[in-house]
Structure formats: structure tokens, C-alpha cells
Amino acid sequence: MATRLGLSLPQMRQYSIGTDVPAVARAAERIGYDSLWVFERALFPEPATQGLYGVEGLPWPDQYRSVADPLVTLTLAAAATERAELGSSVLVAPLHLPFQLAKALASLDAASGGRVIAGFGTGWSLDEYAASGVRPIAERGAVLDEIIAVCRAVWGPDPVVHDGRLAKITSAVVGPKPARPIPVLLAASNERAFRRLVDHADGWLPAGFSAEGVGAQWRRLRELAEERGRTKPIRTVLRVNADRRAKPYAEADRRPFQGDADQIVADLVEFAGLGLDEILIDLQGTARDARELADVAAEVFEKARAAGV
């Protein structure tokens, strides 16, 4: 069976959000993409307290200077489409109040007819946490745990009850309810995060930095699920950040998904061999405008299907 393919929506500053998000969403659904995705970047610190991903000296990409809100972007896409799932990879959950986030996602799922995928991560930016975090960044794992618990409660049957550190709901009717149980997928790359995923989430959001690395993590995650007695399947959506304008690399130094459509598809073939459920392709960063983004998305999709992905 062919690997499901998703496409990132245009959120960056070269796009006109109000017109380009619906246009690209409709085009992607027409092309055949199974899902549409957003990410979260709350701000662009200048000067930055830390490097990108917390790596010292690694600069933040210039396109992060303006990134549209993920839930607003998904709402625009939901109104323009009928079939494609609507996911976040990732939404930095601890930057959001738990109850409000749960209600917003429930409302979006109800409005879209049951198409939302709640993809959460803990983030890494000290500046974003200083501006918007509900607790200090050192507590981000505990905050994510409670956010998941609040979401499950709010999305579940009434009366909703939750007694936590961040939210206390004694007994309440909370609506609208999701059209169906919203799957919670987590970004995870270490043992503690893997345990949280196995015990409390529906799926995994790996990043496609190397097929060997993702394959090793996927094997470990399945081993851990077996060790902890999980029988429910783990849904997997791999995120790949493609750069069509990257300069040529020597083969020994080449990173995946850097190059033209043929090279991107060649890498998709390699990663598809890992047996993951879905691959999310982010092409928006190096497209000049929405028309180019849609054209490249169509080219990559057609060549991927021709290659058996």
C-alpha cells in the first residue's frame, strides 16, 4: 500500500495568509495529498538568547521572522477543504493554556467533520517560553502531561472533571465535542519522551534528518511499547523539511531532501522503506509564492507515486 503523503501549509512571510492558505489547501487536496499540516514558531528573537534548536551558534532561518498562528491557519484550511486531515507538526503545547487549547481543537474537529490531528511537542526556545509559556521551560514535560490529560477530559463525555496544577474543572458541560476521538501524536526522541508517548499518546512525529537515525528510533519505540504492554498500534507521521534551492553537496555531506524534485523523491523512497504510515513534506520554506508551492507540491506528489511511494 502506498505511503500516505501530507503537505505543509504556507505560514511564512512570503505568503498572503488569508488567500494563500485556502488556495494551497484546495490545490493539495485536488492533487491527492492525504493531509495538511502546520508548525508553530511564536516569535523571532533578535538578538536570540540561543541558537536554533538550542544549538549554540546555529542561526534562526530568516523565514521564521513571520509565521502565522497554527490554529488560525488550520481553520482557514478546514473551511477550504472536505477530505484532507488537518494536523500540527508540531504545536508547542506548553505555550498554550490547557483548557483553551483543548476547546479550540475540539471546535475545529467538530467544524471540519472529524479531521484534526493534535501533534504536540515541548519546544526548545527560551524566548518563546519567556513570552508565552504557562510554566518555566524546565517544567515543559509535566505541562505537556497535563495538557494531554485536560484534552482527553474536555474531549470526553460530560460532566468534565479535572483536578490538576494548571487547570481545575470541578464538574462542567463543555462543548462542542470533537466529531470523533482526536488522535494525539507526539514529537519524541529520548527515552522519557518515548515512555510518555507509549503510555499516553496515539502516535509519533519523527523528523527526517537521517533514515538510519529514524529507523533506530522506530525500532526502540516499538521495543518499548512491547515492554510496557501496549497493544494499540502507534501511528507514525514523518516530517521532512525539503530545500529545493540547496547548493549541491558532496555525497558524503549531503543531507536528505536537499535538492530538486527528483532528489527529494529519491529520499522519500528511502524513508518510505522504514514502514512509517505517512510522510509530511514541507516545501514552503524555499517557494517564492503560493503558485510555486502548489506547482512543486504537484510535481513531487506525481513523481513520488510513480516511484512507488
TrEMBL record:
<dbReference type="GO" id="GO:0004497">
    <property type="term" value="F:monooxygenase activity"/>
</dbReference>
<dbReference type="InterPro" id="IPR019921">
    <property type="entry name" value="Lucif-like_OxRdtase_Rv2161c"/>
</dbReference>
<keyword id="KW-0503">Monooxygenase</keyword>
<feature type="domain" description="Luciferase-like">
    <location>
        <begin position="20"/>
        <end position="240"/>
    </location>
</feature>
<dbReference type="InterPro" id="IPR036661">
    <property type="entry name" value="Luciferase-like_sf"/>
</dbReference>
<keyword id="KW-0560">Oxidoreductase</keyword>
<dbReference type="InterPro" id="IPR011251">
    <property type="entry name" value="Luciferase-like_dom"/>
</dbReference>
<protein>
    <submittedName>
        <fullName>Monooxygenase</fullName>
    </submittedName>
</protein>
<dbReference type="Pfam" id="PF00296">
    <property type="entry name" value="Bac_luciferase"/>
</dbReference>
<dbReference type="InterPro" id="IPR051260">
    <property type="entry name" value="Diverse_substr_monoxygenases"/>
</dbReference>
